[in-house]
Amino acid sequence: MSGLSVVILAAGQGTRMRSMRPKVLHAVAGKPMLQHVIDAAGALSASAIYVVYGHGGDAVCSRLADQPVQWIEQAEQLGTGHAVNQAMPAVPAHHTVMVLYGDVPLITDSTLRRLAAAAADGMGLLTTHLSDPAGYGRIVRDDAENVLAIVEEKDATERQRAIQEVNTGMLAASAADLRRWLDALDNNNAQGEYYLTDIIARAVSEGLSINTVNPEVVAEVMGVNNRVQLAQLERDYQRRQCEKLMMSGVTLLDPERFDLRGTLTAGQDVIIDVNVVVEGDVILGDGVYIGPNCYLREVSIAADTRISSHSVLEQADIGAECRIGPFARVRPETRLADRVHIGNFVEVKKSRVATGSKINHLSYVGDTLVGNDVNIGAGVITCNYDGANKHRTIIGDNAFIGSDTQLVAPVEVGAGATIGAGSTITHDTPAGELTLSRIRQKTVSGWQRPTKKTD
Ligand code: UD1
Ligand code: CA
After folding, report:
1. 249-435: same fold as 4-221?
2. Rounded average pLDDT over 261-283
């Protein structure tokens, strides 16, 4: 092939989404639909990708500003042929042009490769068969099965409407031919639009062969016009993703109740219980178990760690053989070494916890360095914020922090130190010693509880 230019149509209003947001920015698996299409096109090593966006569609360009695409505005939506033609001045004549749709997100690069190949000796046209073809352009063939034309439903005869082979809208053709055909289009049809589909009959009249290609699964060519269709594609995408994960050796206790919005790299014998949501890039080592109702975003978890139910972990690095949860919250910039225990109702933020340390109950640990084999009792709080700035807490190896202690940062607890329960620690505490700040217990002997007055 002598160079490929991809044109993605994304100028439609998307009125039926009933949204403030342009349709192509609505997400499937956490990623804007248009981004899915750009990624599929990107995998073809195209020379250029043009996105035709609509008037007022600046939100699209700014949301996807970092994409390797060229933005082309179609100020007025005069039809699919008019839309493609907006990009043509930028396309070199010797290129093959592939037309894709920004609201048809699940198209795969492997199907697109076959479509590009089909354009080598004629025009490539992606079609599919639908039991209910209503709304789509129909593929009209002659007795020898050669494609003659595409007829839009609104322009079709009764007999043509019965045809079940439909136009997906995606095609590939030579840029020089396309430019000539598009310049000659008219809008004398039921919708008063410049139809891209009219180029098929022109190509046929010039003796070109129209080579049709079908997707591997129909979902690849399904478009999104409303939120019902968006949800259907989401489920389809999730189901296929789950199948891949399971085939690669991950146990999903219920693939219907697992959502991946990103990439999951998993070792052997990973088990994921129900209602787990994974976002961004997540890495799970061999033998990791993720309990029910957990949310993981951009985390890596090393081998044989167990995350118990209802835990939320974001942007954290978790070592091997850790025990996290249930009901734990591990916040960004946290690094836990091997065999760390983080128990219920414990929040850890921007902290490093070294090997074998335990924070088992109801604690907040923020901006803290915790050494090896430290035991942090129930209800310990690092007071890391003075209302204006954050301060660090350092806890040495083997320290024991009694329950209900407040560590007022900046503060350092020496190695092997013991802090008595209920202390408020405002100064550094020496290594190996017991420090406590609570008042001495006393007993008032003979004291009587008040009794209720009777009149
Ligand atoms: C189009 C096809 C039809 C096909 C169907 C598949 C034509 C004339 N018809 O019909 O054969 O079966 O898609 O879904 O091509 N767009 C623009 N600018 C425009 C008009 C459209 O960017 O001026 C974009 C839309 O955002 C959309 C795509 O092109 O992503 C298709 O437009 P739409 O109006 O939905 O075409 P259909 O009538 O569905
Ligand atoms: Ca459509």
Report:
1. no
2. 98
Q: Looking at the domain covering 4-221, what would its CATH class be?
A: alpha beta
In the sheet with 358-361, reading across from the earlier edge strand, the strands are: 251-252, 271-272, 289-290, 306-307, 323-324, 341-344, 358-361, 375-376, 400-401, 418-419, 434-435
**Rounded mean pLDDT, 233-240:** 98
196 in Cβ contact with 106 (< 8 Å): no
pLDDT at 454: 87
* CA 128 to ligand 2 centroid distance, Å: 15
3-state secondary structure at position 19: coil
- Domains of the chain by residue range: 4-221, 249-435
User: Which secondary-structure segment (H or E) carries 199?
Assistant: helix 198-205
Helices 80-87 + 175-183 axis angle, to 10: 130
Residues with CB under 6 A from ligand 1: 9-12, 52, 74, 77-80, 82-83, 101-103, 136-137, 150, 152, 166-169, 195-197, 223
Catalogue the active-site residues. Answer: 361
| pLDDT score for 13 | 79
Q: What percent of the chain has pLDDT over 70?
A: 100
- Give the per-residue pLDDT at 259: 98
Residue 48 neighbours by CB under 8 Å, 6+ apart:
5, 6, 70, 90, 91
Length of the chain: 455
Instruction: State which H helix or E strand residue 40 sits in.
Output: helix 33-42
Per-residue pLDDT averaged across 378-396, rounded? 97
Amino acid identity of residue 320, one-letter, is A
What's the rounded mean pLDDT across residues 189-210? 96
Q: What's the pLDDT score for residue 2?
A: 76
Bridge partners of 295, per DSSP, are 277, 312
Helix, strand or coil, per DSSP, at residue 251 = strand
- Between the CA of 224 and the centroid of ligand 2 the distance, in Å, is 8
CATH number of 249-435: 2.160.10.10
Nearest-angstrom CA–CA distance, 25 and 202: 34
User: Between β-strands 96-101 and 165-174, what pairing exists: parallel, antiparallel or unpaired?
Assistant: antiparallel
* Ligand with minimal distance to 135 CA: 1
Atom of ligand 1 nearest to the CA of 83: 18
